[in-house]
Amino acid sequence: MANSETVAELQRFIETQKFSADAWKRRMLNPSDTAMCQRMEALLNDMARKVLALVQADAKPSMVASAIASALRSTSTMEFDTEEREFICDEISRMAKIANVKVGNTLNRWLYGAFLGTLINLFRGPARG
Predict the structure, then answer these.
(1) Burial readout 17-46 (b: 16 or more C-beta within 10 A, e: otherwise)
(2) CATH classification at residue 33
């Protein structure tokens, strides 16, 4: 049976506005426009709902990590600027930590591209998050 604390934390993650003006200010960045923030919010919430469903179904961590990787593969990095991509990756990393899965290698490949992401992963060692 799914850990009720993990389920509750994922539900809070979904309910929280992750890309608010205050969140951007904490990163010392100017916020993206409202439409882009809504797009980013929808992306993360859709991903978190999939993760939540898998956690509730007691899926293996590898299945949860695969769902995150699949969602990222279907999202073009070209839709976002550098700060937006980094913010998205930080939030995905936070969500993955809640679900107790490692997605660092996946995030590096999405953020930096397959070649550079693979090099980073090779030199950095095992995924940390």
Answers:
(1) ebbeeebbeeeeeebbeeeebebbbebbbe
(2) 1.20.1480
Is 93 inside a domain boundary? yes
User: Is 56 in contact with 7 (CB distance < 8 Å)?
Assistant: yes
Overall number of domains in the chain: 1
Its pTM stands at 0.87
Per-residue pLDDT reduced to its tens digit, 81-129: 999 999 999 999 999 999 999 999 899 889 887 655 565 666 666 555 5
118 part of a folded domain = no
